[in-house]
Amino acid sequence: MKITINDDFDLLKIADSGQCFRFNACGEGFTVMALDKYLFIKKVGEKEYELSCSEEEYEGFWKEYFDLGLSYSELRGRIDPAEDPYLYAAAEYGKGIRILKQDLWEMLISFIISQRKNIPAIKASIEKLCAKVGRKAGETPEGEILYAFPTAKEIASLSMEDLAACSLGYRDKYVMKAAREVASGYVDLESWKDLDDAGLMERLLELFGVGVKVANCEILFGYHRLDAFPKDVWINRVLDRQYPGGFMFDKYTPYNGIMQQYLFFYSRTTM
DNA sequence: AGGCAGGTTCTTA
DNA sequence: TAAGAACCTGCC
Question: CB-based burial of residue A115 (10 Å sphere; 0-12 exposed, 13-18 middle, 19+ buried)?
Fold first, then answer.
């Protein structure tokens, strides 16, 4: 099916923004995996995109996945170039990035794996994990098989040798513990949607292998609470160098997470 | 070849 | 409570 998008929307920038690890350029378009859902999306006009899914699947899932109900151009417009020239430049540079609405479980495991790894290594580990379980979910135009992201039960049923083969390193025990706790129902990520911000953070930090940074990524990219502001080495570098007097968090509430994405994306290519 | 990569846990004062 | 070290692995 074909859609028209009248807002910031840049597939390449989204793919490179570091919030998703199974969103890749492929031929003329991009392959996207979200849990066990596969999409091929291609830009075919100024604002027009061709999607491999049906209209029902678009309306029922992908529209929300791409956060198309929120105007990112309007949010960028709130940035005053005279007041904060660095953020303005970052937002211009990152124009087209959106915060995807991703799955809670997939984000939790993905960001547990992400610690002290670079993006290519994170992607490689996740793909190995998906292939290890091997539940086929799609096939790219180039004929590559794509596998569903494993459920908690599927990971819990793997051996530690299986996990070690996914290059998880010392994170293997974090992944396994999370899988067992979710599979058993002891941890119910969905029900945590009802918690307030502080309560949600508290719960996430109780998980083995989850610290403040990973918890904030889960809150921003999984729970889609757009005010979460994950601080990694890149963002800390920006805050230290560009905002010695402090970033104006109050001004952008409740959308600081979107500003974080612009700053992160900009910093990775300019610092 | 040794250091480091989108952190977190564990150990020590 | 707060620093500092240790940690898997892959890639310069």
Answer: middle
What is the per-residue pLDDT for A270?
74
Cβ of residue A249 lies below 7 Å from strand B: no
**Residue A135's domain is classified under what CATH number?**
1.10.340.30
Exposure string for A13-45, b = 16+ CB within 10 A, e = fewer: bbbbbbbbbbbbeeeebbbbbbbbbbbbbbbee
Domain count for chain A, please give it.
2
Question: Is residue A52 located within the same domain as residue A153?
Answer: no
Give me the domain span that covers residue A179: 104-222
Question: B5 C1' – A56 CA distance, angstroms?
Answer: 41
Mind listing the pLDDT tens digit for each residue in A79-134? 999 999 999 999 999 999 999 999 999 999 999 999 999 999 999 999 999 999 99
What whole-number percentage of chain A has pLDDT above 90?
97
**Mean per-residue pLDDT over chain A, rounded:** 96
* A169 CA → C7 C1’, Å: 9
The model's pLDDT over A134-184, given as tens digits with 9 standing for 90+, comes to 999 999 999 999 999 999 999 999 999 999 999 999 999 999 999 999 999
Strand C positions with any atom < 7 Å from protein CB? 7-11
